[in-house]
Every structure is written in structure tokens, then in C-alpha cells.
Amino acid sequence: MIVIVDERERVKEGFTSLFGREGVPTTGFRASEFGEWVSSAATEDLQSIGAFLIGECDDHPVSPRLLRERTGAPVIALSDQHSLENTLRLFESGVDDVIRKPVHIREILARIAAIRRRVHDEAASWTDLGGLRIFMNGRDPEINGEAMPLPRRERRILEFLAQNRGRRVTKTQVFNAIYGIFDEEVEENVIESHVSKLRKKLRERLGFDPIDSKRFLGYCLNV
Question: In what residue span(s) does the OmpR/PhoB-type domain sit (predicted)?
Fold first, then answer.
């Protein structure tokens, strides 16, 4: 999920629509309410966030360093001012990247992926598990070198589990990552259906179930 911070409703709505076309859930905040939310948000909510996009917040500046006290998600500044001085000022504030508008949504997603690779010092943008290779860039997984097409949400669940390999994630964490924290139109139990279908497909192709599921505790990859 992407969090957009901007005082302008039309900007937040515009980005929400564009990210939605790419299948990426978002939520938006005014700068004046964002700081309070970050301070009070549950840790599992923050762990589901893929990145923060910071736009116009002149009256209530957002501190990237404060964000990092609670989450390691990339912080990217969206700049309307095409000047070196403004760009340097934003980098000095602690952001991970500065993007000048207008910009294509796919470029933003590519920059987020690049930052996450650097932060986690990943030598490759995939995770191997037996004959299963899970990509982190939106590609369908491969089994023994052959692509395994998956519906978008099943693929993203598999990616989220791979990103959190070695630890168990709850159903709520998976839901927040796939649908967004504030999506009230979808029931959280839909995750159980997605995971069940995903496990069946993987079991048929691999001959074993790579996803360990424990009631009330959540899911993890059998690494």
C-alpha cells in the first residue's frame, strides 16, 4: 500500500485513481493529520505500507527521520518546483528520493522497488524456494523456469509472503498490504479465500505446499 500526504484533495484523488489502475492500494492524508496518525498507528499497519509519497505540506512539514523511527518504508518527495535548491532542500530533510512532476505512476513504482532493493541489500529481485521463483517486480512466479500465471491479488500475496520470509504475518497484515488499511468495502476474510486458491495451485505444480498457515497466527513461507 502507498500512503500519499498532500494538502490538496485533487492531488490525492488523482494519484489514488492512477495507482488503482496498476492494482496498488493507496490511502491519503492531509499533512495536518498525518503526524498524529503515524504516532498512533499499529505496528502491523505500518508494516503493510510500501512507501510514503510526500507532496505539498508547507504548513505542516513531514519529517522523514521521524517516519523511520517507526517504519523502514521508502519516503519519496513529489516536487512541483523544478529547481536545484528545492531538490537539495528535500534531500537534506531526509527523503530517499525526489521526483519532479509530472511523472508516470510506473516510474514511481520502479523507484520504490529500487530503493527497497538498496535498503535490504538484495543481490536479486527474486526469492527461490525449491523449484519456485517469486519475483518482486510484478512478474508472475516461475516453477522450474516456466511462468505460472496468477491473478493479481494472489500474486501480490505471494510477493508479500516472500518479502517477509522467515517470519509469520497475520491475516490483517496481508489484507492491509493487498487492499489498503482503510478499505471498508471488502471483508478481511477474503484473504482466506485468496490464500486457499493460491496454495492449491502451488501444491498442484510443486507437489508440496510452500505456505504454512496457522489459525489465529497467520501465514509464512516454508523456507
Answer: 124-223
Query: Residues 131-140: pLDDT tens digits?
Result: 899 987 778 9
Positions of CATH 1.10.10.10 in the chain = 126-221
Please name the amino acid found at residue 160.
F
State pLDDT tens for residues 166-192.
789 999 999 988 888 766 678 888 999
- According to the model, what pLDDT value does residue 103 have? 93
Domain 126-221 has CATH 3.40.50.300: no
